[in-house]
Write a structure and sequence with these properties.
The protein has 363 residues and is α/β, with parallel strands linked by helices. The chain contains 13 helices and eight strands. Strands 1-4-5-6-8-7 form a six-stranded mixed beta sheet, covered by helices on one side. A two-stranded antiparallel ribbon has the order 2-3. β5, α4 and β6 form a beta-alpha-beta unit. α2 packs across α3 and α4 packs across α7. It starts with a helix and ends with a helix.
Length: 363
């Protein structure tokens, strides 16, 4: 929007100088590997949870997942990396209560009613239909932490680089207690069913434990929007493919859907009826399965992006991802061209060789 473009121009003078990207990228690569290993230790089953950006359902499959041994060195390295990231966890997020601000789904110009008790933090405005203050505050804390981590991953030093510098430019998020809408992200915010909703109440424990990852997943989408990569119905070819959008969100969030990390899991996924090459899912209409099963693809979308930026995979980086998104934000380059420019491999070639590449990549 013109207002956000003006805000971004005004805020740019507050941007910080760049840090050593090489160090940041190597740290992030190690964080990804630690996260996938530790998540597998926490979970004893592999629930494929149905999730769509316009429709959210849940189910769990009964496939057993193997357990990895947690080594002392891994714990030490994880603690060290968390210290390097200057992340003290979800705490100390201050805010105040405000009112009189509408919650609008900008991409469809739809205003969603709310209780007009809005919790404002540094970077967010938190809305709800009927959630308690505690639920709103918890939602805000998770969102602030997620934004901090996504900015760190993309080497964004200051929210001003994303155009966030006053109340009108803050990210708007909605925790819905009484489910009336589908969960989704949009420019510039997201709506999720809250931790006090009936839908969340019926989630299995392993999914409830991953709620923060869902918040972070949606935050990744919003950061893409803030970087200028917006829905473009008239020129869909200028948007990233669906596999890439969801794969990036799964990779940076650590996976709301339990990641595929071994060759055995990869082979098991391929044997399931309706599972095809994930790189062929350019739009949701390309799915060969019902929308109710779309969540089964998210772990493989995650593998597809993780391979691109892992030193043990294609060996590019999140800096390349960021540069590609900035290229697309110019609105004059299609995804196929931008992908090859920044990853050094043609999209068609990646699709043709994907299974062989991942087979060699996973242990």
């Amino acid at each position: 929007s013109k207002a956000r473009e003006k805000s971004l121009t005004h805020c740019q003078k507050f941007s910080s100088p760049e840090n050593d990207r090489d160090i940041q990228e190597r740290i992030f690569s190690m964080v990804m590997k630690i996260e996938t290993h530790m998540s597998r230790n926490r979970d004893s089953s592999n629930p494929f949870t149905i999730r769509h950006n316009l429709r959210h359902q849940n189910f769990a499959n009964d496939m057993k997942r193997s357990t990895l041994s947690r080594k002392i060195s891994l714990l030490f390295l994880g603690a060290l990396l968390m210290t390097c990231a200057n992340d003290s966890g979800i705490m100390n997020v201050s805010g105040e209560w405000v009112s009189g601000i509408p919650f609008i789904l900008n991409h469809v110009d739809l205003e969603i009613p709310h209780d007009d008790r809005i919790y404002e933090t540094t970077n967010f405005l938190v809305f709800s239909d009927a959630s308690s203050d505690d639920i709103k505050i918890d939602f805000a804390e998770k969102a602030e932490k997620a934004l901090r981590e996504v900015m760190y991953a993309f080497d964004i030093k200051n929210p001003a680089e994303l155009g966030i510098c006053d109340q009108s430019s803050k990210i708007t998020i909605y925790t819905e207690k009484i489910p009336r809408h589908s969960q989704l992200s949009f420019p510039y915010g997201f709506l999720l069913h809250g931790k006090d909703s009936e839908i969340y109440y019926h989630w299995p424990p392993e999914l409830k434990a991953r709620f923060y990852k869902e918040v972070k997943h949606e935050t990744v989408h919003v950061v893409q929007f803030l970087l200028g990569v917006l829905p473009n119905p008239e020129h869909r070819e200028r948007e990233p493919d669906r596999w890439f959008n969801e794969g990036l969100a799964e990779t940076l969030s650590g996976g709301f859907f339990i990641p595929i990390t071994t060759k055995a899991e990869f082979e098991e996924w391929k044997r399931i009826q309706g599972h095809v090459n994930p790189i062929s899912i350019h739009r949701w209409s390309d799915l060969p399965i019902p929308a109710s099963r779309v969540g089964e693809y998210y772990p493989m979308f995650g593998v597809a992006v993780r391979y691109l930026i892992d030193p043990d995979g294609l060996g590019t980086s999140l800096a390349d991802v960021k540069e590609m998104l900035i290229t697309l934000s110019g609105n004059d380059t299609d995804f196929v061209t931008a992908f090859e420019k920044h990853f050094g491999i043609g999209l068609e070639d990646y699709e043709k060789t994907f299974f062989d590449r991942v087979d060699a990549y996973l242990k």
